[in-house]
Amino acid sequence: MARIAGINIPMNKHVSIGLTSIFGIGRSRALLILESAGITPTTRVKDLTDAEVAAIRSALAKWPVEATCAGKCR
Fold first, then answer.
1. Helix-then-strand count for the chain, H and E
2. Integer angstrom CA distances of residue 42 from 6, 34, 62
3. I want to staple 30 with a disulfide (CB 3.0 to 4.6 A). Which of 18, 19, 47, 67 is the partner?
4. Model's pTM, two decimal places?
5. What is residue 10's DSSP assignment?
Protein backbone atom coordinates (compact mmCIF):
# COMPACT_ATOMS: atom_id res chain seq x y z
CA MET A 1 0.00 0.00 0.00
CA ALA A 2 1.28 3.43 -0.92
CA ARG A 3 1.20 5.88 1.96
CA ILE A 4 1.79 9.47 0.90
CA ALA A 5 1.35 12.52 3.16
CA GLY A 6 -0.09 10.29 5.88
CA ILE A 7 -2.89 9.01 3.61
CA ASN A 8 -3.28 5.48 2.25
CA ILE A 9 -3.73 5.82 -1.50
CA PRO A 10 -6.23 3.36 -3.08
CA MET A 11 -4.26 0.60 -4.81
CA ASN A 12 -6.44 -0.18 -7.84
CA LYS A 13 -6.81 3.37 -9.15
CA HIS A 14 -4.70 5.38 -11.53
CA VAL A 15 -2.18 7.38 -9.57
CA SER A 16 -3.66 10.66 -10.85
CA ILE A 17 -7.02 9.73 -9.30
CA GLY A 18 -5.51 8.18 -6.16
CA LEU A 19 -3.67 11.37 -5.27
CA THR A 20 -6.98 13.23 -5.08
CA SER A 21 -7.75 11.32 -1.87
CA ILE A 22 -5.25 13.66 -0.17
CA PHE A 23 -6.99 16.78 1.11
CA GLY A 24 -5.81 19.75 -0.94
CA ILE A 25 -4.98 17.76 -4.10
CA GLY A 26 -7.37 17.94 -7.04
CA ARG A 27 -7.07 16.56 -10.56
CA SER A 28 -5.03 19.44 -11.98
CA ARG A 29 -2.59 19.55 -9.06
CA ALA A 30 -2.22 15.76 -9.14
CA LEU A 31 -1.27 15.96 -12.81
CA LEU A 32 1.27 18.72 -12.07
CA ILE A 33 2.82 16.63 -9.28
CA LEU A 34 3.08 13.58 -11.52
CA GLU A 35 4.59 15.62 -14.34
CA SER A 36 7.28 17.03 -12.06
CA ALA A 37 7.95 13.52 -10.67
CA GLY A 38 8.17 12.06 -14.18
CA ILE A 39 5.39 9.50 -13.71
CA THR A 40 2.69 8.61 -16.22
CA PRO A 41 -0.75 9.54 -14.79
CA THR A 42 -2.33 6.29 -16.00
CA THR A 43 0.00 4.11 -13.93
CA ARG A 44 -1.85 2.12 -11.27
CA VAL A 45 -0.86 2.83 -7.67
CA LYS A 46 -0.11 -0.86 -7.09
CA ASP A 47 2.43 -0.77 -9.95
CA LEU A 48 4.48 2.12 -8.51
CA THR A 49 8.03 1.34 -7.47
CA ASP A 50 9.52 2.62 -4.23
CA ALA A 51 11.58 5.13 -6.21
CA GLU A 52 8.45 6.48 -7.91
CA VAL A 53 6.64 6.83 -4.57
CA ALA A 54 9.65 8.73 -3.23
CA ALA A 55 9.58 11.00 -6.29
CA ILE A 56 5.88 11.73 -5.68
CA ARG A 57 6.58 12.53 -2.02
CA SER A 58 9.35 14.97 -2.90
CA ALA A 59 7.21 16.64 -5.60
CA LEU A 60 4.28 16.84 -3.17
CA ALA A 61 6.44 18.59 -0.57
CA LYS A 62 6.23 21.77 -2.68
CA TRP A 63 2.45 22.05 -2.18
CA PRO A 64 0.57 22.80 1.05
CA VAL A 65 -1.70 19.84 1.85
CA GLU A 66 -3.45 18.72 5.01
CA ALA A 67 -0.73 16.42 6.35
CA THR A 68 2.23 18.70 5.59
CA CYS A 69 0.55 21.99 6.47
CA ALA A 70 0.58 21.49 10.28
CA GLY A 71 -1.86 24.33 10.91
CA LYS A 72 0.22 27.00 9.12
CA CYS A 73 -1.95 27.26 6.01
CA ARG A 74 -4.35 30.04 6.88
1. 4, 2
2. 22, 10, 22
3. 19
4. 0.78
5. P
